[in-house]
Amino acid sequence: MKDDDVLGMYLRDINRIPLLSREEETDLAVKAAAGDKAAKDKIVRANLRFVVNIAKKYQNHGLDLTDLISEGNIGLMTAVEHFDVNKGYHFISYAVWWIRQTILKAICEKSRAIRLPLNRANELVRIEHARKLIAGNKTEDQEFEEVAEMLNMDKKHVREMINISREMVSFDAPVKGSDRDDTTFGDFVEDSYSDAPDTGVMTEAFENELNDVISTLKPNEAAVLKMRYGIGVEKPMSLREIGEVCNLTKERIRQIEKHALVRMQHPTRKSRLESFVA
Length: 278
What we know:
The protein is mainly α.
């Protein structure tokens, strides 16, 4: 059986495993902390699809998807061993950090002859992601400058990190001799994993965590943030529109929003959300 067939079967199998409710997760986490192996295994199995979602974001960095998933699963199992349900976090919010760290560590150690420090490997992933966001008709120098500004990095550092990554073949690399000028290597690679569990599950987890964090603010701050950024409402609203709903001036809404954003930067709140940011 081909590797792609095995991976496809694995993705279909884990997609059939039901997610845990918050009550089930809490009960299993308590048992797991007491050494119950069956409880640990059940938590791991219920969260395997999250590992796939995270691993897919680190493709094209020297390891194939199967290896990335395997490394991420190790991180998931480590997270179960360290998880403290009494701190009030959703398990996946805590586990994301461990999953990413083990994947990045593997990329550092196994994907290239010259090993990168973990923080440099993470920077390289962020730089490649930023390059995709600003893709367009730009010179290389303009691209470096925009990436540096977006990530608050030195332009020279961005250039050096991209030079390090040149040994890898990018899906965005142009293909010479094609009929179209904009043809890239990625155009010839079939996406065999479109049915795999992916962004929907992770997005739901983030939205749940975000709502939990916002609920710790004052009621007026929470309401303003949700309306301002379109959280749980049809679309983001302007300061004036929010003022009309709340019967407050536009300037007062601005003040409430500013204060709420400052409070969202508190380490306790920030730590619950930053693990979702690559």
